[in-house]
Amino acid sequence: MNVHSLGDGPSLLSDAQNPLREFVRAYGLVERVMHPYFQKFGVTPSQWGMLRTLWRAEKAGEPGLRLTDLSDRLLVRPPSVTATVARLRRASLVRRERIAGDGRAWLIQLTLKGRRLVQRVLRGHERQLRLLLDGLSTSQQEGMMQIMRQWSEHLERMMAATTPGNPSPHVRNGHGQKTVHTSRKLTRRS
Question: Do the bridges between strand 102-110 and strand 65-66 make them parallel or antiparallel, or are there none, so unpaired?
């Protein structure tokens, strides 16, 4: 089902069947369900997202990540990354090191305390994620995954087509149809 822009036909934006509205609602509910889980460990969901991203980078052999790399991987604006890193530093969960040869850049790394926390959270994390998805059958979960990947690819194409010098918010979707978006900035929390 396509959402039409104004003038192209009926719009789902005011309709109770709007899939974007349901997505936002579900995302909010996931955050509410997960918040108490992360709170047991003394972190917020966004702090967990950063810790988990640094953990994955470490496991992939990366010694740490620049603030810009964290921002890109988390799809979060740089000021939010900087503020989250500051809170995690105060909690001694991450540290930052100057990058040799680049006096302005910092490499963000997990501390031993941060690694231990990630390991503790991960012990029950899979079970918590299973609880979140228990309301869906395996085939529904697979279908949702396929839809989310397809939608993500579409949004990535939109972001790539929308450059600061391009005043047109019109892009072609994967089916050759012209769509309209009103915002050029997309953020996502983990």
Answer: antiparallel
